[in-house]
Amino acid sequence: MTEATVASQLSLMLKASSSHSLFASTNSIAEVVAKPMASSLPTTASFRVFSSSSAARRSLLSFSSSLKSLAFFPLSFHFSRHQRGSAVNASTSGGFSSVASSKWAASYTDQLRGAREDIREVLKSKYCHPILVRLGWHDAGTYNKNVKEWPQRSGANGSLRFEAEMKYKSNTGLINALKLIQPIKDKYPSLTYADLFQLASATAVEEAGGPKIPMKYGRLDASSPDHCPEEGRLPAAGASSPADHLRKVFSRMGFNDKVNLIVKYPWLLSLLWAPMIYNNMQEIVALTGAHTLGRARPERSSWGKPETKYTKNGPGAPGGQSWTVQWLKFDNSYFKEIKAKRDEDLLVLPTDAVLFEDPSFKVYAEKYAEDEETFFKDFAEAHTKLSNLGAKFDPPEKFVGAKYSDMKGCNHE
Fold first, then answer.
1. Cα separations (Å) of 275 from 38, 262, 339, 359?
2. Angle, CA of 34, 38 and 394, to the nearest 5°
3. Are residues 158 and 181 in the same domain?
4. Cα(355)–Cα(357) distance, rounded to whole angstroms?
5. Is the peptide bond before 225 cis (omega within 30 degrees of 0)?
6. For residue 400, which of 40, 154, 93 has the smallest C-alpha distance?
7. Count of CB atoms situated within 10 Å of the CB of 57
8. Rg of the chain (C-alpha set)
């Protein structure tokens, strides 16, 4: 059965639903449970239809097995954040898409795949993993949860490509990352900058040996420099109170809203439910662990040494001061080195040191120094959340491009 036939049959059944009282009194029509989705589908896709008509249910289920051959679900399905075993809902408001929209999905995913391969080649030749991670981080990290309108709320919307934002002190040097990405954008013009920045960031983590990052795509780009955020939204290494500064910045982004309770009421830590509050610190500590990659250059950030024994010969452009000995390898050595503080050639910023000084951060920093697997798991989850901050998806929340940034789980062949 072809995709067009499947869509046609399902569309006809949906039109009949009003007379048959097929569904409950919600807007949800059908729930498709894919474990996992797309190319990883089992022999059938399982439909859970809330129906009072057994005939209609049998009719719908009769062609469910045909979905195993479909490379991608029509875009009118509302895809939530992709997790193994997550449900996919079809909405009455949008109807079902044509074959053309499915072809659009295939084309966009093909371009994402191609862009990822080009990014991998750039990483191999330029050793630019750290700056590409930073590019995605700095585009998404400006998000303000207190602003509801898009793109005024900032976040992962590609506004960092504009000179007005690129010239901020916190973004010094990122023009070099944009120059690396621009040829890929030119080659795949349908891809948005917002998607490319996040694809590049996740790919850089993975190619450096880090965890697989669950991703989704379809972010819209801010269209004007007028949509750039004001300067000062990103973490600053030299804040007078590093712990409070980290909490304030990450709380504005929507991470760990409960952490401010500890600042205001320290005695809460003595309560039995203190571990729940501690648990809300992990995203801050995990994301800071991205410093396991890269170097600080004094001419860009006013931090770090001009060069050390670990950076004077590259790879890539020589110089700067790294946090770790192998600063192109993503692992948990950042936490080990910050804890030890035994090597003067390795960088420790105030916002690094505080991870082992503040009791609410220390519990996670200690854990990550001992357990790389836990660090990888928590980092992947936090990075996924970061990559979606403030983003507007088109179609909204519908297009899951891949389970991971390597496009697995979305095979159109």
1. 38, 12, 22, 12
2. 95
3. yes
4. 6
5. no
6. 40
7. 17
8. 23
Is residue 263 located within the same domain as residue 339? yes
Q: 250 with 215, same domain?
A: no
CA 391/CA 378 separation, integer angstroms: 21
Q: What is the pLDDT of residue 324?
A: 97
| CATH number (domain holding residue 265) | 1.10.420.10
Q: Quickly tell me which residue has 């929507």 as its tokens.
A: 254
Residue 10 lies in a domain: yes
- Beta strands 321-322 and 28-33 are unpaired
Determine, yes or no, domain membership for 134. Answer: yes
Side-chain-side CA neighbours of 408 within 13 Å: the count stands at 11
Tens-place pLDDT, residues 16-67: 433 333 223 333 222 322 333 333 333 333 323 333 344 443 433 333 333 3
Round to whole Å and give the CA distance between 206 and 391. Answer: 22
Whether 155 and 175 map to the same domain: the answer is yes
d(CA 177, CA 192): 16
Question: What total of structural domains would you count in the chain?
Answer: 3
Picking from 38, 71, 97, the residue at the C-terminal end of a domain is 97
Domain range for 298: 242-377
CB 391 within 8 A of CB 157: yes
Q: Which residues are catalytic?
A: 138
Based on the fold, state whether residues 76 and 118 are members of the same structural domain.
Answer: no
Other beta carbons within 10 Å of 120: 15
Cβ–Cβ < 8 Å for 304, 295: yes
115 in any annotated domain: yes
Residue 37 falls inside a structural domain: yes
Other beta carbons within 10 angstroms of residue 27's beta carbon come to: 11
47-54, Cβ contacts within 8 angstroms, sequence gap of 24 or more? 49/22, 49/23, 50/22, 50/23, 50/24, 51/20, 51/22, 51/23, 52/20, 52/21, 52/22, 53/20, 53/21, 53/22
Tell me the per-residue pLDDT of 176-211, one tens digit each, with 9 for 90 and over: 999 999 999 999 999 999 999 999 999 999 999 999
Q: Is 385 helix (H, G, I), strand (E, B) or coil?
A: helix
Same domain for 91 and 145, yes or no, is: no
Contacts of residue 355, Cβ cutoff 8 Å, sequence gap at least 6: 285, 288, 335, 338, 361, 362, 364, 365
Distance spanning both ends of the chain, measured CA to CA: 16
